[in-house]
Amino acid sequence: MVELADGTGGSLDAGAIQKTTLIRSQMKFTVKEIFLSALAALILVVLCMWLLDLPLAVWIARHVGTYAPYVRTSNLPDHLLVIVVILTSLSWSAYFYLVRRNIYDQRTFLCRMTGTVLPLSFGIKTLLKWMFGRIETHTWLADPSLYGFHWFAGTEGFQGFPSGHMLVFTPLFLALWHFYPRHRLYYGVAWFGLGVALVTTEYHFLSDVLAGTYLGAVVYLAVAARLDKLTG
User: Fold this and answer.
1) Chain centroid to CA 137
2) In this structure, are residues 221 and 27 in contact, taking their beta carbons and an 8 Å threshold?
3) Residue 117: CA count within 13 A, CB half-sphere
4) Residue 91 to residue 87: CA distance in whole angstroms
5) Which candidate, 216, 211, 215, places its Cα nearest to that of 175?
6) Rounded CA gap, 97 and 60, in Å?
7) Burial class (CB in 10 A: 0-12, 13-18, 19+), 9
């Protein structure tokens, strides 16, 4: 293994340097590319809201879930905060452990990334849900007259947009995707499966999931770029 001095008394694994250099090159986007990707995501989300969200939700309720007025929709427990706290704590504990041992490899970079991006994405999703106040699918099935956005009133039953699970877990999957590409198939299956589960359990409309995925990717790239600058 080739090791290079990192300027702090530790050592940098050459393979980790190569991987982070590759990630750095992949994260360089022009203003035009950023604008076009945001525009494409916006158009896709709006089209889903207009054309797919409600018909898909009704179809799922009839064939997969339990349709209102029986109002016995799925009750997926929301332990997202607990998961974020645990993963963030583990990430920073592992990071400082590796740093104390003067180890600077992909494990170190991964721990720093996840320890930073997970609480940040959770905070962003909390703010956006409160701001948009979109009705959740199971609430809409119980009372279709409440459909829509209830601005700055995102309380229980009105926290559908964007999907918090996708906004939080997308950066995690992207970090694993970049630092440990060998298992990308498993990450992709888990990522896709989470999105499907959120829709089929009547927690989210399809557009909520798509928006959460895109925003999660944006948060990841922004944090990665910032940490890259701090690392130099």
Assistant:
1) 20
2) yes
3) 29
4) 6
5) 216
6) 47
7) exposed
Pairing of strands 11-13, 103-104: parallel
- DSSP symbols for 49-80: IIIIHHHHHHHHHHHTS--TTS---------H
- Are the beta carbons of 13 and 105 closer than 8 angstroms? yes
SS3 at position 103? strand
Gap between the Cα atoms of 87 and 74, Å rounded: 26
What is the predicted pLDDT for the residue at 34? 83
C-alpha distances out from residue 124 to 55, 59, 118, 162, Å = 29, 31, 10, 10
User: Taking phi first (over 0 means left), then psi (-120 to 50 degrees means alpha), and beta for anything else, what does residue 155 get?
Assistant: beta
Cα separation, 214 vs 216, in Å, equals 5
3-state secondary structure of 212: helix
pLDDT digits (tens, 9 = 90+) for 209-228: 999 999 999 999 999 988 87
Sheet-wide strand order for 103-104 = 3-5, 11-13, 103-104
In this prediction, residue 31 carries a pLDDT of 74
- The DSSP code for 154 is -
Question: Which residues in the chain come in under a pLDDT of 70?
Answer: 1-29, 65-78, 231-232
d(CA 89, CA 79): 16
Burial class (CB in 10 A: 0-12, 13-18, 19+), 201: middle
pTM given for the model: 0.84
Q: 22-231 has which CATH code?
A: 1.20.144
- Of all residues in the chain, the percent with pLDDT exceeding 70 is 81
Grouping H, G, I as helix, E, B as strand and the rest as coil, residue 69 is: coil
